[in-house]
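Quick review question:
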C-alpha cells in the first residue's frame, strides 16, 4: 500500500489538500494488479480568475461595443478531479514484452466554465465554477522489444464522457471517444537511433467554437526522429513534426475561427548535454 498527499496554500483561492492511495498486489513475479484513488485540483489561470474585458465572440455581438463582456467570479475556486483506477501490468516472453490495461473513472467537479453555449441576457458572461464532468474509459498499452535494436509500442484508449447543461456539454464533446497511438525505435548501432511516433483521435468539438461541427485529426499526427550520440555526455537530434499536416487547420469550413490551429510540417534540431 502506498499513501501520499500534497497540501497547497494559495493566496488567491482557498487552500486544498490532494491525497492519493494505491493498493498493489503481486500474484506472480510477472503480474501486478493495482487500485488507485486520488484527488487533484486545477488552479484557475490568471485569465479565469482576473479577467474583465470585452471580446468579439461568434455567439453574439452587443451593438456599439463589439462583443461579449467577460468577468471573473470573485469567489472562483480550483477545479477538483477525483479519480479511481483499476489496472494490471503483465510482463511476457521473458520480459521482452509488457501489457498494461486499466479502467478508470474521473469526475471533474467545480468545473471552471466560460459560458459560450448560450447568450447571457445582459451580454455579461461570468467565468465561475459551474457543473460537473465525468470521463471514464479503458486504456491499453503494449510494448515489445524484438531484439536489442528494435522496439515497438502501441495503445488504444476508449473514452466516454457525460455532463449536464449547455456549457458543460461542450466540455464533454471536447473529449474524443477513442485515441490510438503507435511508436517505434530502431538502433542500427550504438550511435544512431531512428524513431517515429503516431497518434490519432476521434472527432471533437472546440470549446471556443461551440457552433461549429465536430472535427477530427485528419490523417493523424506523425513525428519522425533521428538521433546521434556524440559520446556519453552529448546527443544531437533531427526531428520532423506533424508530417501528415497537409495544411489541415483543425477547424471546419463552418467555423468562424477556421484559420485557427493551422497545422504545418516543421523540422527541429536538438542538442542534449549531460554534466
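Suggested answer, residue by residue:
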Amino acid at each position: 500500500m502506498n499513501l501520499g498527499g500534497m497540501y497547497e496554500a494559495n493566496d488567491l483561492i482557498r487552500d486544498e489538500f490532494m491525497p492519493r492511495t494505491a493498493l498493489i498486489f503481486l500474484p506472480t513475479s510477472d503480474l501486478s494488479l493495482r487500485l488507485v484513488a486520488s484527488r487533484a485540483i486545477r488552479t484557475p489561470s490568471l485569465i479565469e480568475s482576473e479577467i474583465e474585458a470585452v471580446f468579439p465572440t461568434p455567439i453574439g455581438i452587443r451593438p456599439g461595443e463589439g462583443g461579449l463582456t467577460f468577468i471573473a467570479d470573485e469567489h472562483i475556486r480550483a477545479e477538483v478531479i477525483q479519480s479511481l483506477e483499476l489496472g494490471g501490468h503483465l510482463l511476457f516472453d521473458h520480459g521482452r514484452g509488457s501489457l498494461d490495461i486499466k479502467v478508470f473513472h474521473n469526475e471533474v467537479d467545480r468545473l471552471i466554465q466560460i459560458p459560450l453555449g448560450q447568450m447571457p441576457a445582459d451580454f455579461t458572461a461570468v467565468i465561475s465554477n459551474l457543473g460537473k464532468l465525468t470521463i471514464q474509459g479503458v486504456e491499453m498499452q503494449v510494448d515489445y522489444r524484438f531484439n536489442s535494436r528494435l522496439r515497438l509500442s502501441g495503445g488504444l484508449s476508449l473514452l466516454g464522457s457525460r455532463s449536464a447543461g449547455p456549457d458543460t456539454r461542450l466540455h464533454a464533446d471536447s473529449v474524443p471517444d477513442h485515441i490510438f497511438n503507435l511508436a517505434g525505435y530502431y538502433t542500427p548501432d550504438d550511435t544512431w537511433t531512428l524513431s517515429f511516433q503516431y497518434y490519432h483521435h476521434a472527432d471533437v468539438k472546440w470549446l471556443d467554437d461551440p457552433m461549429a461541427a465536430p472535427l477530427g485529426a485528419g490523417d493523424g499526427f506523425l513525428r519522425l526522429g533521428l538521433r546521434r550520440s556524440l559520446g556519453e555526455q552529448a546527443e544531437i537530434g533531427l526531428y520532423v513534426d506533424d508530417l501528415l499536416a497537409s495544411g489541415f487547420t483543425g477547424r471546419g469550413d463552418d467555423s468562424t475561427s477556421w484559420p485557427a490551429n493551422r497545422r504545418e510540417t516543421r523540422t527541429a534540431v536538438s542538442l542534449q548535454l549531460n554534466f
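Why it works: The chain has one domain: 21-36+79-273. Confidence is low (pLDDT under 50) at residues 59-63.
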